[in-house]
Amino acid sequence: MIMIHLDTYLKKRQMTLTQLSEEVDITIANLSILKSGKAKAIRFSTLEKLCQVLKCQPGDLISFQAEEQE
Predict the structure, then answer these.
(1) Rounded distance, CA 23 to CA 39, Å?
(2) Any idea what the Cα angle at residue 63 is, between residues 60 and 65, rounded to 5°?
(3) Rounded to an integer, what distance in angstroms lies between the CA atom of residue 67 and that of residue 70?
(4) DSSP conformational letter for 70
């Protein structure tokens, strides 16, 4: 499972989703989908903008967690 850590970096930078939306020129709705983990894909250009504004690396925002098998 791919995990998105947008909340962590918003808190670190003391930013709201609205502020981030304005900075990266992405709708709040699209950021909410990404933040909730419901996004199916992300463009590299979007990831680049997020990293620039949040001053982080792509690997800081995205991680992989293996799902437990039954």
Answers:
(1) 20
(2) 150
(3) 9
(4) -
* Residue written as token pair 């930078």: 13
CA distance 7 to 11: 6
**pLDDT, mean of each 10-residue run, the chain (70 residues):** 92 95 95 92 95 95 86
Determine the Cα–Cα distance for residues 4 and 54; give it in Å rounded to an integer: 14
Q: How far apart are CA 22 and CA 16, in angstroms?
A: 10
What are all long-range contacts of 20-27, with beta carbons under 8 Å and residues at least 24 apart?
Answer: 20/50, 20/53, 20/54, 23/53, 24/49, 24/50, 24/52, 24/53, 25/49
User: Alpha-carbon distance 34 to 63, whole Å?
Assistant: 13
